[in-house]
Amino acid sequence: MFTGLITDVGTLLNVEERGGLKRLKLASSYPADSLVLGASVAHNGVCMTLVGFGPQGEGGEGSWHEVDAAAETLAVTTAGEWKVGDRINLERALRIGDELGGHMVSGHVDGVATIVSRKDFDGMAHFEIEAPKTLAKFIAEKGSVALDGTSLTVNKVSGTVFTILLIPHTLEKTNFGTRKAGDRINIEVDTMARYAARLAEAAAE
Fold it and tell me: Do domains 8-92 and 111-204 have the same CATH topology?
């Protein structure tokens, strides 16, 4: 489980094809001695298991780690499109006692959304995002949504298009600083919205 508060932006170092999956190697600022094999880390919102790691560089600062993206992950997320040099939003799994500063994010991506437009002003950025039609009903004004693993508040909704406003801190600490119109991003809708929609459907049956 995650909160959608990005703790680092890693860099994709290598992509290795292994039959139906891809092994991805990334560099991050996480200390190597803080990582554990089998631990869960969200990569652009996709929960992945660490299958290898080690220190990055001679100074002991930062680390590299490896994860496997299976066929299902490659089919329903943007992971199959990632290439060497890409900056990937990272978040380590919650621990008991951690502050819940964003919203509850499972790391199970629902689909892929597309950035329609971006407008920058006063150090901030206003984005229009088009969600898959099947997910649009779960997105509401002032509700929460996770985009590439980042917990964000929805400003406006019109059909399948919704808007978000990113402050300078978010643009600096996530990969949204370089995002532009046409980019595809992972989307996970708020779990509470999903249950509310299901209850409404059940009541109408």
Answer: yes
In this structure, which topology does domain 111-204 adopt according to CATH? Answer: Elongation Factor Tu (Ef-tu); domain 3 (2.40.30)
2 secondary structure, DSSP code? B
Q: State the pTM of this model.
A: 0.92
Q: Which residue has the tokens 């600062």?
A: 61
Kindly list the catalytic residues: 2, 40, 47, 49, 70, 108, 153
Q: What order of strands is seen across the sheet that includes strand 161-166?
A: 150-153, 144-147, 184-189, 111-121, 124-130, 161-166, 156-158
CATH class given for the domain over 8-92: mainly beta
Per-residue pLDDT of the chain (205 residues; tens, 9 = 90+): 898 899 999 999 999 999 999 999 999 999 999 999 999 999 999 999 999 999 987 666 799 999 999 999 999 999 999 999 999 999 999 776 566 666 778 889 999 999 999 999 999 999 999 999 999 999 999 999 999 999 999 999 999 999 999 999 999 999 999 999 999 999 999 877 776 776 777 677 7
Q: Where are the domains of the chain?
A: 8-92, 111-204
